[in-house]
Amino acid sequence: MVENLLKRGPGQTVAFEPHPNATSLAETMVAFANADGGTILIGLDGQGQVVDHMVDEAAQGHLVRALVMCRPPVVTDWEQYDLPGGTVVALKIARSPELHALADGRVLIRVGAENRPMGGEAIRHLAATKSSGDFESEPIEGATLVDLDKAVLDEYMRHRAERGYRVNSGRLQDHLIEMGAMVEDGTPTVAGMLLFGKHPQTFLPQSGLIFVKFLGKEARGRDGLAGYGRRVEIEGPAARIIERAWQVVNEEMRVEAVVNGLRREEVPEYPRFAVREALVNAVCHRDYRLSGRRVEIRMYDDRLELISPGGLPGYITLDNIVEEHFSRNPRLVAGLFQWGYIEELGLGIDRMIEEMLQHGHAPPSFEAKPYSFTVRLHNTLERAPARSWPSNMNERQLRAMNLIEEQGRITNRDYRQLCPDVNPETLRLDLVDLVDKGLLLKIGDKKGTYYILK
């Protein structure tokens, strides 16, 4: 296990503590418990090198002092591993159904490789989510191991091994219990059924997906009458739903032929990564407690809508959706991550925005309601071939570069109008950064300054 964690490095569910103390351990323990859970590797530096010989007594002393600082105490499990440079301790923290704080009152959440403090409103949102229970971990009454698909399980284990995860020896049931797909008595959980069920919809009818293509820009058929061009109901475990839904969307997407230099390229109606990311998120983060609705994909002439039952999870809002991360179903997310359907835990929305902008589209729009969340991808049917911008730009800079490509130049005033909610000094520094990167040329001086592509 520890080898896999070393490969991944610090992130949403992994932390390295080179010289631990009670305070830093308690902060990470609380942050993991409030988010998706995780593992702290004690005795490793930021590069994953052993920096100290950690023994049981020392690790236990740090842990006992850290536990006293957590309100309520965080449930932990730990193991000791001998590595070439010395000994490290892996401290495992499960996602908790309770809200945890430190003795000084701070509430932390894990976001990427950081432990971020939370404010009052975010804490209230998270507390409300915690009190609603952890539905994906609940056992499914009447289900047994026989209801899981061995072919799907074998495929999962194969893909997991290909991604560098060592498959522990022992019974399959032990592995399923460890990953939260089964409880001790052998009953599959909601997460286990969603990932590996032969037909999850027998137990969870809401876990399917509906694709509908409308012939126009409204939810109507030809000549404005009620109807649609194509309707597909998709069932099966989560991986099969994602694969089939992607196949259907890909079949229905228009493809343009674009000549770039001497090469003829086929450009899809929507960037493929953006579609797959929105699709995977809809399946992963929907609220499976809502039994009356399935995930919906609606394709119109001018947009693609992916509608996920359930509001935004945890403390996530439309204002922080790009920067923050919270999984409603962390076991399902972890399973699809190890399967290879998710590239990196905690990332995705920003990359989706980047892909849309780089391909000349407007950024995705998001709509949050109490019982649904919608992602809209808007197409651009007539456009010049999009340039491939460097990936080390933020969303604002990508929007600025696309505006310059459209109108030939940009001023500070144009940029402020493009990003009205951002501090003007931040925007000025954005443009300076693009000049320093060799992407823009600064023309003029003072009030007459504008920028063009270099």
Give the beta-strand count: 18
Report the mean per-residue pLDDT as an integer: 86
- Principal-axis shape equals globular
Rg from C-alpha positions? 24 Å
Biggest sheet, spatial arrangement of strands: 10-9-13-14-16-15
First-residue to last-residue Cα separation: 49 Å
Strand content: 15-25%
Going by CATH, the architecture of the largest domain would be: 2-Layer Sandwich
- The helix content, as a percent range, equals 25-40%
Total number of domains: 4
Q: Helices and strands: which structural class?
A: alpha+beta
Continuous helix count: 14
Low-confidence stretches: none
Q: What multimeric state do the chains show?
A: single chain
Largest sheet: 6 strands, mixed
At a glance:
By secondary structure, this protein is an alpha+beta fold.
What does this protein structure show overall?
This protein is an alpha+beta fold. It folds into four domains: about 1-130, Methyltransferase, Cobalt-precorrin-4 Transmethylase, Domain 2; about 145-205, no CATH class; about 205-380, Heat Shock Protein 90, CATH 3.30.565; about 395-454, Orthogonal Bundle (Arc Repressor Mutant, subunit A). It is built from 14 helices and 18 strands. It has helices at about 1-10, 20-35, 55-70, 120-130, 150-160, 170-180, 190-195, 240-250, 270-285, 330-340, 350-360, 395-405, 410-420, 425-435; strands spanning about 15, 40, 70, 75-85, 85-95, 100, 110, 115, 210-215, 230-235, 255-260, 265-270, 295-300, 305-310, 365-370, 370-380, 440-445, 450-454. The strands form six sheets. A six-stranded mixed sheet has the order 10-9-13-14-16-15, covered by helices on one side. It has a four-stranded mixed sheet with strand order 1-2-5-4, with helices on both faces. A hairpin with a 3-residue loop joins β13 (about 295-300) and β14 (about 305-310). α11 (about 350-360) runs parallel beside α12. The model has no long low-confidence stretch (mean pLDDT about 85).
